[in-house]
Design goal:
binds magnesium ion; DNA polymerase, domain 1; 2 domains; binds 6-O-phosphono-beta-D-glucopyranose; Rossmann fold
Length: 231
């Protein structure tokens, strides 16, 4: 039995749905490079860092680029992306996200953001919830991508809560694995058929509540399973 003292939230796909903006920007880049990027391809980029996403896209397009060229392409994509997210409004918060984070805080549970994005500050500010996180750990503060647990472990450390007392909310398989690799429990946001390893799966934070959170306290912590090893 553990006591849940902190909730760590992924951003994209959990708090907001920015995947559509990432897709538009990556698709524009692929178009300029002369190939198509499908929505199905985009699914594989969820939770993947900017440079790793670019590497995958170039691989799919059969295009080789130097490191300097890749830096330029990533910067070009990011400028388009930043232009889109700078117009985001609180209306783009996913249903129940703000309310659940608030209910955690009212119950004395600490809250952190744990995201691969280097743009999380802009997004949180635009949707008006930057004040709801005690700690923000994002792509500017980590070097190892999920399923490495670095982002969540840094969050727990900054909150001064031991990993076993933290619960992570994630929409990506690699994020669920990152939580487990860090010795934390993981709530999957999405479909149970996809997020098979999560300790609990809900379709969105509008379906989450403190009772369901407390039920997780009786589940054993699963630390670093072999089949979720860091790649
Ligand atoms: C993740 C997204 O949260 O952040 C990925 O799911 C994205 O699609 C990654 O590539 C990095 O985001 P950014 O904003 O730093 O380019
Ligand atoms: Mg995500």
């Amino acid at each position: 039995m553990t006591t849940i003292q902190a909730c760590i939230f992924d951003l994209d796909g959990v708090i907001v749905d920015t995947a559509v903006y990432h897709y538009r920007a990556w698709k524009r880049l692929a178009d300029e490079l002369g190939f198509d990027l499908t929505e199905e391809d985009n699914e594989k980029l969820k939770g993947v860092s900017r440079m790793a996403s670019l590497d995958l896209i170039l691989q799919w397009g059969g295009i080789a680029k130097t490191d300097a060229e890749k830096e330029e392409l990533a910067a070009r994509k990011n400028a388009w992306y930043v232009d889109m997210i700078s117009k985001m409004t609180p209306g783009e918060l996913l249903p129940g996200a703000k309310e659940f984070v608030e209910s955690c805080r009212q119950a004395g549970i600490k809250t952190a953001l744990g995201s691969a994005s280097k743009n999380s500050g802009t997004i949180l500010e635009k949707v008006g919830i930057d004040h709801l996180f005690d700690v923000v750990i994002d792509g500017n503060k980590v070097s190892k991508p999920k399923p490495d647990p670095e982002v969540f472990l840094k969050g727990a450390e900054a909150l001064h809560i031991v990993p076993g007392n933290c619960v992570v909310f994630e929409d990506a398989i690699a994020g669920i694995a990152a939580a487990h690799n860090g010795g934390m429990k993981a709530v999957g946001i999405g479909s149970p058929e996809v997020l098979t390893r999560a300790d609990l799966v809900v379709s969105g934070l509008d379906k989450m509540n403190l009772d369901k959170l407390r039920e997780l306290e009786t589940k054993p912590v699963i630390a670093g399973r072999n089949d979720e090893a860091i790649s």
